Structure formats: C-alpha cells, structure tokens
C-alpha cells in the first residue's frame, strides 16, 4: 500500500488540540474584557480555569504576561493576514479591499473580547510590548492605505489613514453589538458599511 493510499484510508489529520495555556489565556481575556484588568485577580482566573495558583504561574508570570500574550499575537496575525490578502490581488485593488474587509470583519466577529481588551487595556502594558503592538498596527494600517491610494488617487496618505481608522471603528464595534441580528447578517452589514465608508458604495 502506498503512502497516499494510507493517508486516504486514515482521512485528514485531526485538528491540533488546544493547549492548556491557550485555554487559560482565553478565559483570562474574557474576564479582563468583562470586568476590566484591575477587576480581575490571578485567583479569579485560576478559579474560572479550574487550576490552582502554582499551576497558573507555571504558564504565566502574572496578569501582565497574559495581557502581552493576548495582544501581541493578534497584532502579528492581523498584519500577516492583511499582507497575504493584498498580495493575492496585485493587479486588482478593488478585490484586495473586499478581501481585507472580509478578513477583518471575520476577525472582529470571532474576537470581540480581544478587541475590548485592546481598546481599554493596551496602555497598561509595559512600554516595549506596547510600542511593538503600535508598530504592528501602523504597518497593518498601511496595507489598507496602499489599497485606498490606488482606488482613490484624490486622497493623500493622511486622508487615506483617516478613512482606514474610521473603517476599523466600524468593524471593531463587535464588542458592543447585541445578539438580535444573526452572525451572517451582522457580517454582511459590517462589510457593507465599511465598503461604503471607504469608497462611497
């Protein structure tokens, strides 16, 4: 039997199991977003995660380390994802913009707690990780600015940045949206509003 035959019999590989560290971090992010950074203790996180203090400190040195671990990878992922989507449409800025909007709307709908954490708690980080996140964010914004500059040549770069940040304000509103509208419709409305804000249609 060939390797291909064996793989077909076995089926696709099982998805990677989430680590205990990832589970604890997700719980911490949810608590920080709901109660505020100072409203949550390590004991609160341990209790919610079902782990004792020593086990918790095995994964994270403290709340500050959790905040860093939550926010830096998100900023890195947005930048890498944005670059990838722009790179898929080197000759079609309209398609690149639509892909960027789809990408960010999905991120925003999947991560409202992370967005809330970023909005309210970023300044609690030490200077170096805060500067790293700001730099990653600026680079991500520039991916949008480059696409907008092609689609709307009447705009200079600062004006395109204003529009990009306005679009993020729309898409990152997910922590404040209720559940009255189903997810698919929310995604469609956010995409439509963002596209209209950026290019007027």
UniProtKB/TrEMBL annotation:
PANTHER family in the cross-refs: HTH-TYPE TRANSCRIPTIONAL REGULATOR RUTR, TRANSCRIPTIONAL REPRESSOR MCE3R
Xref: SUPFAM superfamilies: Homeodomain-like (SSF46689), Tetracyclin repressor-like, C-terminal domain (SSF48498)
Highest taxon of source: Bacteria
Transmembrane segments annotated in the record for this chain: none
Full protein name: AcrR family transcriptional regulator
Annotated ranges, domain HTH tetR-type: 18-78
Annotation: DNA-binding region: 41-60
Keywords: DNA-binding, Transcription, Transcription regulation
GO BP terms in the entry: negative regulation of DNA-templated transcription
Species classification: Bacteria, Bacillati, Actinomycetota, Actinomycetes, Micromonosporales
Feature: compositional bias, Low complexity: 1-11
Region (Disordered): 1-20
GO MF term (any one): transcription cis-regulatory region binding
């Amino acid at each position: 039997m060939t390797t291909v035959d064996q793989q077909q019999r076995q089926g696709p590989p099982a998805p990677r199991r989430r680590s205990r560290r990832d589970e604890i971090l997700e719980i911490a992010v949810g608590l920080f977003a709901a109660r505020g950074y100072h409203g949550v203790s390590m004991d609160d996180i341990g209790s919610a995660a079902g782990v004792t203090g020593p086990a918790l400190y095995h994964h994270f040195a403290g709340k500050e380390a959790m905040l860093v671990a939550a926010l830096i990878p998100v900023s890195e992922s947005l930048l890498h994802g944005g670059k990838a989507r722009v790179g898929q449409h080197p000759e079609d800025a309209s398609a690149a913009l639509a892909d960027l909007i789809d990408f960010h709307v999905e991120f925003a709908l999947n991560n409202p707690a992370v967005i809330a954490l970023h909005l309210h708690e970023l300044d609690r980080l030490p200077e170096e990780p805060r500067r790293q996140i700001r730099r990653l964010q600026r680079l991500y914004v520039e991916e949008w600015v480059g696409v907008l500059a092609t689609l709307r040549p009447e705009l200079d770069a600062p004006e395109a940045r204003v529009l990009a940040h306005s679009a993020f304000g729309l898409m990152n509103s997910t922590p404040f949206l209720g559940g009255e509208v189903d997810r698919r419709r929310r995604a469609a409305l956010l995409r439509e509003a963002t596209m209209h804000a950026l290019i007027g249609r």
